[in-house]
Amino acid sequence: MDRIAGRGSVALAALFAGALGIAFAPIFVRWSEVGPVATAFWRLFLALPLLALWAALEKRDASTDRSNKGLAMAAMAGLFFAADLAVWHWSIRLTSVANATFLANLAPVAVTLGAWLLLGERTRPVFFGGMLLALAGAALLMGANLGGPGAVLIGDGLGVLTAVFYAGYQLCVKRLRDTQSTARIMLVSGCACAAALLPVALLMGETILPSSTTGWLVLVGLALVCQFAGQSLIAWAVAHLSASFSSVSLLLQPVAAAGFAWLIFGEALAALQWLGAAAVLAGIWLARRGTS
Questions:
Q1: Which domain holds residue 137?
Q2: pTM across the whole model
Q3: Which of 38, 89, 120, 254 has its C-alpha lying 20 to 30 A from 204's C-alpha?
Q4: Total number of domains constituting the chain
Q5: CB of 130 within 8 A of CB of 283?
């Protein structure tokens, strides 16, 4: 029992560390010299060599299926992630960044429903209170203001679709972690995601190659910090935590992103935003108490 509790504590720490890793994504995207979808492509593509090396060197585990049975679902996870990134960037073009980011973070609602229907996960009522509190805090933190002209409504709708696609990615990873290693999931899904994103970037006429050494270093940093480290830690952690709680805990990401923007770019937070950040953290704590 103590060993299980210890594994859960390590998984929780890994999940939070992963959330901090992906919180750097908006910083790197702002610094990037290429288009937003092209930036997402390089985030995946540049992480692939390290993921391939990790997958090749990892030890065989009796609980890990080394057959090709999970490849299709891992590829599906990559396609969900590619759709998440591409649709989110379109959402940003049609609505405010705050709205697009907040609506994309509605993924816990879809994940909780999917985990109940597909994975048989059950949560206590206090979990839903924590999830709603965290989402309300995220809305305050990001300054979301939903509704408006037609284009804005379309953008808001794409933001919601982003959340659905990311929920699909999270549920696929959760199911795969029952039989597949983290390295294998990240490698196969990363290949599928990169292969899907490059044609989208080309069709959108985006700048594909950075024009300076600094531009390449930004993309390498994005790949190492956000994809290889951040997403891999999250993928490892979800094997030991419920999908519902993992998804709510990732609302730590916008809190951390706001903090990094404050420290790096001097973007000060208003009083309501500080209140929102506190509500997110309190909501995650409540959600933890509502899951086994």
A1: 18-289
A2: 0.82
A3: 254
A4: 1
A5: yes
